[in-house]
Write a structure and sequence with these properties.
heterodimer, A: mainly beta, six-stranded antiparallel sheet, four-stranded antiparallel sheet, 16 strands, B: alpha/beta, 5 helices
Chain lengths: 260, 253
Amino acid sequence: SDDATWTLAGGWEMTDADRVVAEGGSLFSPAYDTSGWYNAVVPGTVLTTLVDAGVYPDPYYGLNNMAIPESLCRTEWWYRIRFDKPADVAGRRVWLNFEGINYRADVWLNGRKLGDIRGAFVEGLFDVTECFSDHNVLAVKIYPPYNPGIPHEQSKAAGRGPNGGQLCLDGPTFISSEGWDWIPGIRDRNIGIWQDVTLAYTGDVTLAYPQVVTDLPLPDTSSADVTVRMEMTNHAAVGRHVVLCGRIDGVTEFEYPVEL
Amino acid sequence: AAGESRTVSVSPAEIPGLHLENPRLWWPNGYGDQAMYDLDLRVKCGGAESDVRRVRFGVREFSYELTADTPRGEEIRFEFQPTNDVRDGEPLFDTFHRRVVQQDVVVPALREGVDVSRLRRIGKDATSPYLVLRCNGVRIFCRGGNWGMDDGMKRVSRERLEPAFRLHREEGFNMVRNWTGESTEEIFYTLCDEYGMLVWNDFWISTEGSNLNVNDEDLFIENARQTVKRFRNHPSIAVWCPRNEGYATPTMA
């Protein structure tokens, strides 16, 4: 998307975990055969891929909802993508960022487990400098919810019930994943890599979560004070003197020295 | 130091250029343009560029006020709404709402001689309180839709979402409720910015059951914290609402 960031948008493949076990071999081998895998839609859900592949009809129409089986909410899935180094990396740190997965995932690059991600709304940021190579295989194992829930009608005996509610024993996710009492309960349709996955090069000092606060001296709106905050991290083994440079609409420019 | 991470802040006190004269303001649909600014941030280390970020932001300021009439006709103004959830005829208050009620409703009400026992029933039996939102000092009449009902496909491209925003704008709407956080994604907020839709942003905590805390509170809070940090620069976000049909967990409060 610019000269230091790329989106891993094409070339994703997906299959269920049973196939991976049955077929054997390392996912990270260049010779690994994925001819039986689905072409995956990323960003999207497992269901997006399966509908795209013609396994299930689009649940948005008619009674197609009922064609999606119960087993979908109890299956583990693997995503895999191969990609080459997009540019020279000498002296740069390399980062993989998952902007959103649902619900839980283990992330592997070139045979090394990078870590896990939990919850649909956290970013998964991994420093992959040490295991990045000219030719890379990224694999992501996605787990279903611990308990996909059973929607039931609220009543005096049952209480308000979890109808449409949060999946049990899981972290933050999309709330209507369980189903409702006024349609057949078809649970967990949201598992997958539902946001972009990006690759970025940086130096030793990185910026994160910039915040811009604008303050108007109301009722006067003829001027505004702008405050900019951000998290700055030094990933090097030694201290760094850096300069923060800012530019607003190509007009206002500033420089601010920082020691980290 | 090595490995150090810290918050860096710059303001007009250090950078006079951050004081903007005659700024282009961001307005909700129907009240003016949705002016936006681009902020490019670069950190240079030894002359080489180490990292870059681009932030789109709008210049605007919101203020809030909640107003209610008591059954006896007194007008009570307070900053935030106490819960009106009732079980067995009694209002339920969690820590957050108790604090708000004590500080912003009950204490001023006592000072003014209002019957507090009646106050509790304002939301349930009497005139519902109403929330007043001002943007840039102008009172806004909020009208809009309640978005949710995930389709399980997460088809959230601009091409797919934008027609709905255009419809909202042409209907004269200026508000979207991100119901239970179903639409917590960058393109949703970007389009709200561009189309002047104020966002009432729920979090995704359970709406049903017995008002239990989520089972993994730490995980919930980490997701909530990152959500606020990632999306807070969108000028359209007017209200961060803890949850639907309930109230914040103690940790969230």
